[in-house]
Specification:
Immunoglobulin-like, eight-stranded parallel β-barrel, single chain, TIM Barrel, globular, binds acetamide, Chitobiase, domain 2, 17 helices, alpha/beta
Length: 781
């Protein structure tokens, strides 16, 4: 430590003596546009850059079919994303100073490690294992795509040495709540591998769907893979078609092979003892206590059903796992374990008998017993059980079991302290279904915003962790739950670019993580996403333009999630550039106005141009996503049916309380307001939470919109009757407001007799002073 300090002081003194600016010190390491950040990057002794142009050759060692395959993938990627044509050849290449790319085997590096030398006209990747060679090729591909350009690339002469921090660098894909086609799953695996992510945690079973063909139990997919979406939900069809699908064993074998070729291991998750309504619907005799589920589960949430703990049920589970193990060759088999309705076992004779035999009374002891039995079965077949952190409760866990922590990081820390291996997957920060920002048109998902920066800031190695416990951390993963992420474009937007942040946290050594450096590398990453056909979410790099009334005109505020760099803007309609006005504070505009704004870092543009058309109406309009929920204990951003004007908005709502606040609305001169709303199917299994739904009593059966000022509990200042409607309908109500002046919080509540359908606010429009009408509806999504 003291040595290092002396060293850096010496460097500083030298720099001062030589008159070098501070930037020159930091510039000792060449900047490469690689995500995740490599372990080390150094300038080559010969600094001559290397031009990679069309027609050059990638050489793979003679007889090394794995290397040849990697060379082929590199060539394919260079062509599809850069338009570069690289040839393939077998052999060591014609020698130094010949333009070429060379893959070589070098003993003594770790299985995932590689070294990449760019010098003397060549790019040379050396690795011991196939994975290391593949990752070296991924890094070289990133060097070949440093920007959105096409054609030849000049590479700086560097040496990169690299290996991962963590062995488990994962992504959870929930195929149970919504189904992705095999082609979509394979594409996601391709994209994961280009982030050096190596574990696909495949959530194949949940209450709403059983997605894996099991030959011995055909009803699992004949019955359990299908549901009829509630009317008015985005999955519903006018004809009431069922929704679902499953993966045949042949498809799974192909997906597993596809993943293996990209160094991705698939960890299948077969949920037990809870979250398996789909199985209990198919085979009701396997359930514990009380009535079996009556119909396919179309609700999101939790349900009071669990597997029984009798021999018949364990026989079934072992049969299922036997087929699962035959399909998935990896060591890890995930068996869920989260949120099991253990109290059901209190009314199950077999469960009570087993509890007595265990000398216990708490049903949590039964889940521990359940987990031990399944773990022993898997272990006898050479596999390791993985479960959510609930498997820590109720008794001893087999030493080999792996704990996946979703209740923050505490489960993993507790497990690691007890000597278990653990994986970090904490909600909400690594739950990729949380909305990525607070703009008016974020994709649907969970309500609480989790930004790219939040994900990047996740620290997998908190200071409280002992070195021994840290040794038990296998790694981390982002979790793409899909209750509200239905389509391939939505999957892409929620996964990327957050997967890049998870990749860097998981792969790069702690000292290599650097938010500013990551942000500098993002434009190239977005360009790669575009070239790959990934519709990545741009909230992180898009300037947010907010406007509020100021007399007859407006005050504009710009915001960025990045926390660094500059925002540049124009108000004359021109494209903002590096010399456009620098945003320093809120500014006034005369209406109507057009504000265009973009984020920069040191003159480099980071994202798309935000383009806001402002007029007296638009600055008085708020989408639900820009409002506050009065009660934010549960926040969802729900997609409804498509509206008559062709939009598919996401409604920010607490299903337990239909109440929103428009903070600081300027009411001066406002005589009228309009509120658009939808009736959404209330498809939530809230269990006891149903008792916590707050209903605001109506005066007439279809309910009302009530508007209050500065409080949500005083008498309303305006009330409008809602037109009647069924789930899926969308309507607007317009109502006069009594004269007020100045800024006030407006509180909007919908009254109703029941909570199904769920009344969800879409947008609020205050009619501009002096206008009779409320103005046009918002455009977009
Ligand atoms: C979970 O979110 N129940 C793992």
């Amino acid at each position: 430590m003291a040595r290092a300090r002396r060293g850096s002081r010496l460097a500083l003194v030298l720099a001062l003596l030589l008159g070098a600016p501070k930037a020159a010190l930091a510039a000792a390491e060449p900047q490469v546009n690689v995500i995740p950040a490599p372990l080390s990057v150094a300038s080559a002794a010969d600094p001559t850059p290397v031009l990679i142009a069309d027609g050059e050759t990638i050489f793979a060692p003679r007889g090394d079919t794995a290397a040849l395959q990697i060379a082929r993938e590199l060539s394919d990627l260079a062509l599809s994303t850069r338009g570069l044509t690289l040839k393939l050849a077998v052999g060591d290449g014609p020698g130094p100073n010949t333009p070429e790319i060379v893959l070589v085997r070098q003993p003594g590096l770790g299985p995932e490690a590689y070294a990449l030398d760019v010098k003397q006209g060549q790019a040379r990747i050396a690795a011991t294992g196939d994975a290391g060679l593949f990752y070296g090729a991924v890094t070289l591909w990133q060097l070949l795509t440093p920007d959105a350009g096409r054609g030849p690339v000049t590479l700086a002469a560097v040496r990169i040495e690299d290996r991962p921090q963590f062995a488990w660098r994962g992504l959870l894909l929930d195929s149970a709540r919504h189904f992705q086609t095999p082609a979509e799953v394979e594409q996601l695996i391709d994209w994961m591998s280009l982030h050096k992510l190596n574990v696909l945690h495949w959530h194949l079973v949940d209450d709403q769907g059983w997605r894996l063909q099991i030959r011995k139990y055909p009803q699992l997919t004949a019955v359990g893979a299908w549901r009829t979406p509630p009317a008015g939900s985005p999955d519903a069809t006018p004809a009431g078609a069922r929704y679902g699908g499953f993966y045949t064993q042949g498809q799974v074998r192909a997906i597993v092979a596809h993943a293996a070729a990209r160094h991705v291991t698939i960890v299948p998750e077969i949920e037990m003892p809870g979250h398996a309504v789909s199985a209990l619907l198919a085979y009701p005799q396997l359930g514990a206590g009380g009535p079996a589920p009556a119909a396919a589960q179309t609700d999101w949430g939790g349900f009071p059903y669990v597997y029984n703990v009798d021999d018949r049920t364990f026989g079934f589970l072992e049969d299922v796992l036997t087929e699962v193990m035959a399909l998935f060759p990896g060591r890890y088999i995930h068996v869920g374990g989260d949120e099991a309705a253990k109290e059901r076992w209190n009314s199950t004779p077999q469960a009570q008998a087993r509890l007595r035999a265990l000398g216990q009374s708490d049903p949590a002891a039964l889940q521990a017993d359940f987990t031990r039995r399944i773990a022993a079965f898997l272990e006898a077949h050479g596999r390791r059980l993985v479960g959510w952190d609930e498997i820590l409760q109720g008794g001893e866990l087999p030493a080999d079991a792996v704990v996946m922590s979703w209740h923050g990081v505490d489960g993993a820390l507790a497990a690691a302290a007890k000597g278990h291996d653990a994986v970090l997957a904490p909600a909400p920060v690594l739950y990729f279904d949380n909305r990525p920002g607070e703009g008016p048109r974020e994709p649907p998902g969970r309500g609480p915003p989790v930004t790219l920066r939040d994900v990047y800031a996740f620290n997998p190695l908190p200071a409280t962790l002992t070195p021994e416990a840290a040794g038990h951390l296998l790694g981390l993963q982002g979790n793409l739950w899909t209750e509200h992420v239905r389509t391939a474009p939505q999957v892409q937007a929620m996964t990327f670019p957050k997967a890049a942040a998870v990749a860097e946290v998981a792969w790069s050594a702690p000292g290599r993580r650097d938010w500013e450096g990551f942000v500098r590398r993002l434009p190239a990453q977005y360009a790669r996403y575009a070239a790959l056909g990934i519709g990545a979410d741009a909230s992180a790099v898009t300037v947010r333009v907010d406007a509020a009334p100021a007399g007859a005109d407006a005050t504009v505020t710009l915001g960025s999630q990045l926390g660094l760099g500059e925002m540049r803007y124009t108000t004359d309609g021109s494209e903002p550039g590096p010399a456009s006005p620098l945003y320093a504070q809120a500014f006034a505009v005369k209406l109507p106005a057009r504000v265009r704004a973009v984020a920069y870092l040191d003159g480099v543009r980071l994202g798309p141009v935000a383009d806001a058309q402002l007029d007296a109406a638009s600055i008085r309009r708020r989408a639900s996503q820009q409002l506050r929920l009065c009660n934010d204990k549960l926040q969802l951003s729900l997609e409804g049916a498509r509206t008559a004007d062709g939009r598919s908005p996401a409604y920010l709502v607490n299903p337990q309380d239909a109440c929103w606040i428009y903070a600081g609305a300027d009411l001066t001169g406002i005589e009228r307001l309009t509120v658009a709303f939808a009736r959404l199917p209330f498809n939530f299994g809230l269990d006891a939470g149903h008792n916590s739904v707050i209903l605001h009593p109506p005066r007439q059966p279809a309910g009302e919109l009530e508007v209050r000022q500065d409080s949500c509990t005083t008498d309303p200042i305006a009330v409008a009757a809602l037109p009647p409607g069924t789930a899926g309908s969308h309507a607007e109500v317009s109502l006069p407001l009594p004269a007020r002046s100045g800024r006030h919080d407006l509180c909007f509540t919908f009254t109703s007799l029941g909570f199904d359908p769920l009344l969800a606010l879409d947008w609020v429009q205050l009619a501009p002073p002096g206008s009779a009408a409320a103005g046009p509806a918002p455009r977009g999504r």
